[in-house]
Amino acid sequence: MANTRTVRRYLYCILMLSICVGMQEAKGGGPPQSEDVVTGALQWRNDETIDHRYYVFLPKEYVSSDRDWPMVVYLHGGGGGGASAEQIRKLLQPLMNQPFVLLVPLCPPVPDGMNKMHQTWNHQILGALIKSVINEYRIDSARCSLMGFSMGGSASWELPYYHPELFDKVAVMSGSCHFWKVRYFPKIPVWVFSGGAEQWLPYHKQTVDAAKSFGVNVTYTIWPGLGHGENHKKSLNYEPLVQWLSGELSAPKQP
Description:
The chain contains eight helices and eight strands. By secondary structure, it is α/β, with parallel strands linked by helices. It has one domain: Rossmann fold.
């Protein structure tokens, strides 16, 4: 038992040191001067070493102001882990130049996986990464939102279960999870989006129904006739969603 504790302490110290090094590399040793996107990498050492890359997109007014900003964390789907900053910028165009900091982690690929598929999001790594960014940038920690699509949508259901202190609202696009995770979901609002023609729509509905049965504050929007990718595009371009994430809207607004 004592040896196990010693190993855990050792791994934790390595993790925290790696976070500091990764943030210094991402920041060039200090706060951004003119960049609107900063690239970083958090090194996680457990059974293996994982370089967990991420992008931080800053509002135009970030450098010239001294205020604390809301932050939106976006978790991509299974095919987005190798994207460049420009690809992310194009994919998430509706979220760019908004009145919030946008954090986009990149899920590391499995080296020998079929078609280089990406690992499932790791709640420990994500929690450490998000906390490090909140501490490094001028972030209002009481206004941190989470959103995700597909694999990232399912992770957006699950992550608040492990880190209930981190988020004030959640947006889920094409995601589902085990009912046990929503049983202990924190008392924050969730806005869920599905395409009416999605193959996995029944699982989305089951998760929403389970969450509601446990008292979770869920708003559910289904786009009639839309498939998986179409749901992502339609939801991202739905202006009330972006306004809700930024705090301009106090509650979800159904189409």
